[in-house]
Design brief:
With 383 residues, the protein is of the alpha/beta class. Helix content is 50%, strand content 10%. The relative contact order is 0.09.
Amino acid sequence: MKVAVIGSGTMGHGIAQLAAMAGCDVSINDVSEELLNRAVERIRWSLSKMNEGGKLKENADSIMSRIRVNVSLNDVLNGVSVMFEAVPETLDLKLRLFRVADELAPHDSLLATNTSSIPITEIAEVVQQPERVIGMHFFNPPQLMPLVEIVRGKKTSDNYVNKAVDISKQFGKEAVLVNRDVPGFIVNRVLARLMNTSCVLVTHGATTIESIDSALKYRLGFPMGAFELADYSGIDVFYLVFQAMKERGFMMHECPLFEEKYKRGELGIKTGLGFYKYPEAGKYHRAVISTEAGTNVDLAMLVSSAINEAIWLVREGVSEPRDIDRATKLGLGYPQGILEIGNKIGMQKIMNALNSLRELTSWDEYEPDSLLQEIVLSGAKLT
């Protein structure tokens, strides 16, 4: 299989590495040779680390021999089976690229975007055969994270959905189907609710940043607390993704803490200061979070909006309960799926917490979903 990856940043070179490890011939494109050479070095470094851990099935040099770089889109797209777009999250940039890909790539090739927030249908509008445009949302870093969200645009055909699932399996990934093209897909919608509610509870004086992160890490078993994760990934990343989701209809009154940090340039580990302070900018250092700080945090209040969002996804036919739980486990590293957490805490408690949050904020997004209300009345469980 001949693969083109457009964009050589973190996601682009990670996807290219995956494709080469799966035996594909890979061409990477970017705007300069400097960026491309940097991507090659990062792939080489990643392969060396994977080799040290015994995770490679063949010699790293053999894998590297299947990777080429080129600043010419025409050369890269000629004869490809699959194009992966991994350029910055700017709609105009993506539209320009897909117009060119529509002309240069073979007419039966799969055109995939790694967007995390822009609807696939918007991107497909500039392509003469929109049925071949699909979302394949890998998670960072693609080499290690097991999940791919396969996102169907309004005109994406079953044939190309099946191709995307097969490619994901060839890459050693687990595919979760997103059957409706909603902003944020599954994982980012659930995560947006969790992070925004965490922020709301702090700004309303109900608890503290450390208490929330402590409760999420040590009582729920999440890999990181909400604010710790924001610092790790970059507060700017979350702020911009959530803004893009809101612009496309995701109903959320954004908590002011994220905007304040973003505008002050306090972006987390990359700047040395975010919700926590770090000894050296750009160098990973775990935030100090005590196990006792989250002892009295109401877990139902903390996760209720995320669970409510997951239930909305089920009612709207976006995805199946089992896939939503798989997505949150594989994409976010939760020990249980978000709906499983809701069942464990109790859906009555979740609904009560939502009502309390709505009373606290007067925000409609805390209205318990109609399906949640039915579940509480019937005593059923979403599985």
